[in-house]
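During the practical work, I worked with a single protein chain and the tokens that describe its fold, as given directly below.
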Amino acid sequence: MAAALVRPRNNRVIAGVCAGLARRFGTTPATMRVIFLLSCLLPGPQFLFYLALWIFLPSEDTASRNAW
């Protein structure tokens, strides 16, 4: 079973979006950050997608409080 998509408490650099995606898809946070930075070289709304995930993904501590 895959991990829930949340922004973890640890391993954050800016908002924890890449760390959360890495945990969800089973890769390292560094790999996810490199993929994100390389994708920013391509045209598209990658930065807006990152901001949207930052806003809408719950933090790990918020998600654990809501689970009770």
